[in-house]
## 1
Amino acid sequence: MTIEMDKIVSLCKRRGIIFQNSEIYGGIGNTWDYGPLGVELKRNVKEAWWKSAVYERDDMEGLDAAILMNPAAWEASGHLESFTDPLVDCKKCKHRFRFDDLDGEVCPDCGGELTESRSFNLMFKTFVGPVEDSASVTYLRPETAQGIFVNFVNVQQMMRRKIPFGIAQIGKSFRNEITPGNFTFRTREFEQMEIEFFVKPGTDEEWYQRWVDERFRWYLDLGINKENLRLRDHESTELAHYAKSCVDIEYLFPMGWCELEGIANRSDFDLRQHAEHSRKDLSYFDEAAKEKYIPYVIEPSAGADRATLAFLIDAYREEKVKGDKRVVLALQHRLAPIKVAVLPLLRNRPDIVEAARSIAADLRTRYKAVYDDTASIGRLYRRQDEIGTPYCVTVDVQSLDDRQVTVRERDSMRQVRVPIEGVVEYLTDCLNRGELVDLTG
Ligand code: ATP
């Protein structure tokens, strides 16, 4: 099924997932706020990444470096000089484009004549301290990677790490993109999930391939459909100045195949540059081999916002149920913003309400669960389906007699009766297994 982006944007607004930033003032170009459910979804994406990148490996450390850095770091990294996009303006309608996005020689909007292309640096400039002079200029980081490189020796020595090992980081990055758009796909402020993996020169190609496989599998493991994911090798003409090789993991977004994540073999470029500019020794001494070298770096660099958008799009389903349209977000349980919703069948029966609230309170000690009685049961189910809640628990009149509740599964809409006692463990089991557990079988 191909899904228009508008449907996703509208669902996100309607259900409190993503809002336009500063909406009451008319918004600000391509800047979005994650609402109560969006913040949960994105946190789950980031947690799944951190778990696989840091906790499940014994060759990785985490880091949270600052957004502002000494501007010398950006000179060393090459960003001051070459983190640019070629920019052209239409002389007639004044619209602005990235030259490398254009197919023809004229304005795609009005056919007008275009200006000469000029380089535009994507870094946001700002000032440190009260005086706005050139000595106080610094930049909002356009990638989190440099915060890792400048800490390479700190982490390696303090954590007593041997090569190969990596450093993982999640954080905000900023780029003054010329042509942002497609909802949260390209924004000026976004979060990256980056790994710099330090290896011995000569083993870099093998590690590069291992990371490509590992990162591709991560998206599949979290439920992305295989046919919507592909790898695209960069042509040699397309490679960044530092990269030995680079591949993009692409997702089939509504606007076509676009980059989700880039994996690059950056050679020893970054550490060598920082060593030269800082005049510090950033090499590594291999005790066993009595050998000193500057490590090569493999960089899997993903976007938390792009990944979140891809998971949303991939999970979106429209179905017909008894003549009605049902919208379902078939998110993997790990990613679902709310894990369980507890719904009383009759909200004017205090005993039913009390039983439902008590189950919700028990569930809340484990994960995000809600109690909701603001509509009829049918509408409550639809609402939870639309936000991807894997399980709904309904407390009805009979529950008071037989001490059982109905558990309904989102995708199959299958319902089972489960004893109230132990229902929390039962749901936790279902969530861990990713499917409704059959008590009778
Ligand atoms: P693009 O070609 O789409 O501009 P890029 O190749 O410049 O991306 P990288 O520098 O490789 O991107 O950044 C790594 C990841 O960070 C990207 O794969 C993407 O997921 C994310 N990312 C980069 N720029 C943006 C942006 N403007 N908005 C949202 N995410 C972004």
## 2
Amino acid sequence: PEVRRYKFNVVMKNSTKLCSSKQVVTVNGRFPGPNIYAREGDTMLIKVVNHVTYNMSIHWHGIRQFRTGWADGPAYITQCPIQPGDSYVYNFTISEQRGTLLWHAHILWLRATIHGAIIILPKHGLPYPFPMPHKEEVLLLGEWWKSDVEAVIDEAMASGNAPNVSDAHTINGHPGPKSNCLGQGGYKLVVMPAKTYLLRIINAALNTELFFKIAGHNLTVVEVDATYVKPFATDTILLAPGQTTNALLTTNQFTARYQITASPFNSSPVTIDNSTTTATLIYAGALASATTILADRPAQNATPIADTFTQSLRGLNSAAYPSLVPLQIDHSLLFTIALGFADCPSCDNSLRLRVVADINNVTFVMPRIALLNAHFFGIGGVFTDDFPARPAAPYDYTGAKQPENMRTMSGTRLYRLAFNSTVQVVLQGTSMIFPENHPIHLHGSNFFAVGKGLGNFDPDLDPKRFNLVDPVERNTIAVPSGGWVAIRFRADNPGVWFLHCHLEVHTSWGLKMAFVVDNGKGPNESLLPPPNDLPKC
Ligand code: C2O
């Protein structure tokens, strides 16, 4: 294993897109930010220097951070932010993981422009469990606002209303050619004919699930969230924010130009955002004048296409990569994922209410010092460990009948787990206020998606249909609107681990909680002490 060093200078940079210019927060002046490369087993030393006026914090999304929660990154959960003028070295080792992940800012809405790919190659001499590609390409999907992104969320928080949707989606930083300004075209991917490419596709958008397609080509999915899956062919890939998908593209069509699309998926009947972005796959030798073969993008509410995709995902579960899904469960939890209301006398709307979000009716309140510090040093008064295991008053979660009281409670409440205990969480979507999917992300461990269904979870019948053989293993999963997913994981990573909706707007509204995993008794079962340069609050 090697030690790999990276330096991330956080700097402002002027950027012009969609015919308008603004200053954006970037890493090393780039949008998207730099890709980082590693091999399984390597140690990463990534020095982040904050040259801007915002507080900063970076999360290595999907990296397990075994015993090194201090390097996980979510502000006020595992560290205090890096103040302007300060720096912090994220120091962690990548073990038992290989594939594509992403890094992103984990404070305010700064991840809009502070993100990039993490590419973890298998150990030397270990082949991929699929044919060796001719070449690999990263495709980062993002989202762009013409106005200042922090102003968008600040305004929404002050008014109590929903924030403005973005003006465009991007592929490797480029909005599609339709929004072409100042000669900026969409992203172009040039390929050789009759070859196989590995596409590392990442959804780094803030608030949108995206369908991904390439006209005229099927894609073979081989990996999601840096875990291998049973390969399957599809013409459409679905990624929620925070999810990654590796897929093989074989350039077996005639020499031409083919449209690539990233278009929103939203199960809501209301059209929230229709800004499809496009890029172009160009076979080397195709004439510049040749017309581009168009992709037929799915309708925004194409739930059947989304379901077909997610149902095709199965863990590889081979001899070399067996499924480690827990079969016995110590903690069986039911979490309702909901939007709700809080009183807001100062809010600029007639009801004097603000939209909030919650899990089991608890709207999470961010602490003033990092939870991991409070846990490690035994500082009282920062959090309680009484997060409810299930809703206090169950109701019909399908949204057929909205409960009368949609007011939530607030608190910094965590759920405590003994080291190595096994956990099942049924994430029950509620359709409260808006029927929307919620991509739920867990820090510190992958989980296995053992079941999924529509309507209210039935604790007697539904577990009989769980897949405990080859469930897909991932770190982010979309809880369907008006339905549920069941996930399982083993709490074998001591520390404090955030669980939240990866739609940034819902995180801002409080759709988050955290697990605290105690140390084990063995020699390698404790959280390591904090590094000396850990930022202070
Ligand atoms: Cu990618 Cu806590 O997030």
